[in-house]
Amino acid sequence: MSDTNKEVVDLVWGRPSGGGVPSSLFRRWSQGFVFSEAERSALEQFEGGPCAVIAPVQAFLLKNILFNTEGSNWKDISEEEQRTVLCSTLSEILESACLNKTQAFHLATLPRAKITDSSDITDSHPEPESSQPTDTPTALAAEELGFERFHSIIQKRSLRTVAELKEAVLSLYDTWKNKFGVLLFLYSVILTKGIENIKNEIEDTSEPLIDPVYGHGSQSLINLLVTGHAVSNVWDGDRECSGMKLRGIHQQASVGFLTLMESLRYCKVGAFLKSPKFPIWILGSETHLSVFFSKVS
């Protein structure tokens, strides 16, 4: 595993003692961005955990369908519209995570491989003449990758301009849809933002972005995807507490965030998240994130 990959793993998963990250937890997060057949603008979640990434992407995706796409019916979008709007949404979130647009964008990808069957995967050895391998960007999903193996083969692809970013994200549509798509996108956001920049914004760097026991995403992770900043709080602006600077949200967000925890007086959500630019909100309950919206701006 490269030093960069290890830094990403430590930031996202922490440094669990003993046997490392439980295989069940990694499995729950190993899914792609999959559209529902019953509700064609809705993204499906298969197991608990990745809603911290899927819900923000869903919120921005709805924003782009409802308010940025003329003549589109959010209840019945075509497969081509799904492809276009998902990739433009992922690009938008990556752009917001980039502190300086003159810096490079980074995508986390898996190496291409030649596949003859699920037990024969190779990158460098020649294939027998009788075999008919198929190129696919997610070929390694044909074998059951464990946590260590998966993170040891992740590659970083750098892009200099927004146009290059959008083109690359669109070309990787099958990757985002397939196994590991959610994790690869999360890692792309982290690499684009910069590991040190994220650490400087998080309140407690000892806490990973994904809870090592329950697998849910932290508020810093949600804020990173929603606002481009991995701050730990949801109030407006910064606050001082016993000489410690507690970072909050500094401008009106495109999509909002509300939480049941506020009704229980555990936190206070500021106006920048309560009153977003578009009438779309991520709603945090005790165990899950949902998205609700209005078609009227």
Task: Describe the protein.
It comes from Labeo rohita. It catalyses: Thiol-dependent hydrolysis of ester, thioester, amide, peptide and isopeptide bonds formed by the C-terminal Gly of ubiquitin (a 76-residue protein attached to proteins as an intracellular targeting signal). GO terms for molecular function: hydrolase activity. The protein has helices at about 5-15, 25-30, 50-65, 80-95, 145-155, 160-170, 175, 180-195, 195-200, 220-225, 260-265, 270-275, and strands spanning about 35, 45, 105-110, 115, 120, 135, 155-160, 240, 245, 255-260, 280-285, 290-295. By secondary structure, the chain is an alpha+beta fold. The longest helix is centred in the N-terminal third of the chain and has 19 residues, at about 80-95. The N and C termini lie far apart (about 45 Å). The model is unreliable at about 115-140 (pLDDT under 50).
